[in-house]
Amino acid sequence: MLIAAILALAIGTYTMRLAGVLLRERLDLPAGLQRLLPMAAATLLTALAATAALTDGGGFAGVARPAGVAVGAVVAWRRAPFVVVVVAAAATAALLRLAGID
User: Fold this and answer.
1) Do residues 15 and 38 both lie within one domain?
2) Which of 6, 51, 54, 62 is the 20 to 30 Å CA partner of 93?
């Protein structure tokens, strides 16, 4: 189901961007809307990432997974190499689960 959601979002993103190129001269959109449209793809991908990080099988995934994602986000924000980001996130989630915090 996750792959289907990713594919749907990818197709939607591509379609929105293509429509912008093809319809740019035909539509007269307000300036505020023109500023917001490029952020739509990022918003959709953020929603997908949040859903994947916070849920598991339709319910809350527990504390360990979101904590790992948060640590990974902070380490990435500090411009660490990708391998360090992945290891830090995985280690955080693993250590919390090892401590009995699901």
Assistant:
1) yes
2) 6
